[in-house]
Specification:
mainly beta, binds calcium ion, Immunoglobulin-like, elongated, disordered N terminus, 13-stranded mixed sheet, Jelly Rolls
Length: 338
Amino acid sequence: MLAFSYPVAYPVVLVGFRTADRSALASNWFKRYRITQMKITCMLGVATLVLATSHASNVTLNKPVTLNGSFFTSGGTYYPGYTSSAATVTDGLFVPAGTVWYGGTIWWTEGDSPGATVEIDLQGTFTIESLVVQADDNDAYLLEYYDPQDGLWKTAWDVPNADFVNGVNVFGMQTRPNPQDETEQYILPAPIIASALRFSGKVPPQSDGAFSVSEIQAYGYELIAGDVDIKPGSDVNPLNVKAKGVLPVAVLGSDTLDVTSIDASSALLSDVSPLRWAYEDVNEDGFDDLTLKFSNQEVVTALGPVADGDLIDLPFSAWLEDGSLLLGSDKIWVISKQ
Ligand SMILES: [Ca+2]
Ligand SMILES: [Ca+2]
Ligand SMILES: [Ca+2]
Ligand SMILES: [Ca+2]
């Protein structure tokens, strides 16, 4: 059954990491871009995700930018000849390090527009792992994210002042975290789930009160709601813990989901990989569905201790070809007669 609807806010909560990965997490495992296995709690139950190799890409690219406050998109009367637009914040391009803060970038001042923010609508819900910002050197900034799970803005990154780099007083636009390497990303201590980003300048003495930003990048992947049906055609999904054989699961296709775009080999039902898969229209709605067969006994093992009559929500995840992650779940009814 559909665990949550799209495109409304996802009731998905990041609750922690698998025990086996915690030591790796502590040693900043995101830098290695290897296994990222985490647990996610859905409104209807607990889902376990396995993120194999990283599918992260810059999810702000060409997303709409809103300027909240009074901004300058030219060099002004003092600096004629420069023009800019909000779109330069998410165009994927950095200006040359040291470019003047009014040189083709959007800029604003604390005096003219206290509390001004630059907001990026991500147009979806994303897991974000790392960030890069290019902004005026002699200011600290705050990069916040909108968490659709609880509707709150939260701090993603306190972007540091970069007035001096290795003891040298630099000028103009400088990239963080590393002014000398635009490709270096600030790795978040834990991934965040976000549908928007918000950027603002910090007041003096953390800045000179004149702000400019040329690029905000966030690396991660989109979360897509999938309609998952265990034992297609059956509303109750009894699972006999002693039964051998297979547990059939369907991911239902729709006008917004072409199931052939799912990497079926990456599918996981409660940590268990499918034995095999095929495509058929199980619910006869005209859209092909992905049907997968899981080993009953492997699923039972993954469940751990259960009692007769338990209703358990089994999380399902699979990567799509475009790097987004499909999430869903469905309930099974435990049959465990002595
Ligand atoms: Ca840019
Ligand atoms: Ca400086
Ligand atoms: Ca400044
Ligand atoms: Ca169908």
